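Q: What structure does this chain adopt?
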Amino acid sequence: MERVAVQVECYAGSRADERPRRVRIEGREYTVARLLSSSVEQSRAASAVTRRFRVVTEDGLQLDLARTAAGECRAWDVPRNVHDGGILRRSSVPFAGPEAEQFDAALAQAERIAAALGHVGVLTVEYFATPAGPLVNEIAPRVHNSGHWTIEGSKTSQFEQHIRAVCGLPLGAVGLTGHHATMDNLIGGEADEWSRLLAEPGAHLHLYGKGEARPGRKMGHVTRVAR
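A:
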């Protein structure tokens, strides 16, 4: 997997949530309001400190969990996401790679975020894997495209789990229904292959009913589960 250096700038005397940080990835600058990284916090002692991390590039890691009002949390397997031009192409589970060593720390971070927000329902946390541990990049307080594999690939889908959490029902099991699951997004005109996909044994086709198949637009997805 390709790796790049990410530059994170922080400033002395500022709390983590007081001043935006600038994160430069592949020459593009992003602003984040809060970085949940002890390494960043430790660098506040200098007047202007730049720390460098080695992180996974746009195929970063993502953790999806559901939380009830009572604080119960359950998380699905972390998928390996593959992007093309900034668009998610594929999510597959289980994840194989050295980044998996950070999943427990990432889950602990995600649970703290959900609790701090008082979030109920599905929450997605995207992060980078660094030598100092997981570095949060983005959160989405909702079901997420990369979690669509759970519809057929998990014992409880993200949609069902979201309803269970919101309605105060017990959360469902999140184990895999097979040995391996892969979700491929159908981008633009790829959705025109729907008849072939319907005829493919073991392929679970989902079309979103969007009227125009524009380039780069997610028109649906297909999931395959190896049992």
